[in-house]
CDP-archaeol synthase
Amino acid sequence: MLNILIETIWLMLPAYTPNNFAVIFGGGTPIDLGKKFINGRRILGDGKTFRGLFFGIFGGVLTGYIQYNVEKLLGVNLYSRFPLENALTFFFLFSFGSLMGDIFGSFIKRRIGIERGGKAPILDQVDFLIFSFLFVCHHEVFKELFGIEIIILAFLITPILHRLTNFVAYLLKLKDVPW
Ligand code: CTP
Ligand code: MG
């Protein structure tokens, strides 16, 4: 049981880290360029920036690349059983999906009247998860490594991990709010 828990967290890491990189390195020009949607509210808001998207993807791929090499070093055979370029494509899609889910979540939040930084239970915790899986679901790395038990466990543990990391980011003053 502990093994599969650790394996799930390990496999999910390249989808988890993009948002942390976005928090640390994000800022600047917002992706919606400050524009409003038909209901008069921002399309996405100032919390979704090009820099966050760029560094987020970079961070996710970097995380995966480090994991790939750590696995080789330790003789673990998860991501490292695939050729590096397949693994890198997977890391890119996984990170990109994660951030697109986060952006989609903000779009929904603005539509239902939640301001930037406002809390949206469930949506905040699973938007990126659903999108990261959608972006990789046709990839061979996903098909081979992500069994149904891993996917179910990811949905169960992600909300807890998400709260925990956001709270730490808040304590470190990286985020204004603990969610
Ligand atoms: N961030 C960014 N670009 C992104 C995602 C995140 O610059 N694509 C940065 C922003 O500084 C953002 C912070 O990371 O404020 C925290 O991310 P998140 O909680 O997703 O954004 P919120 O500010 O809470 O905005 P929203 O309500 O739209 O989720
Ligand atoms: Mg937020």
Observations:
- Residues 2-171 form one domain.
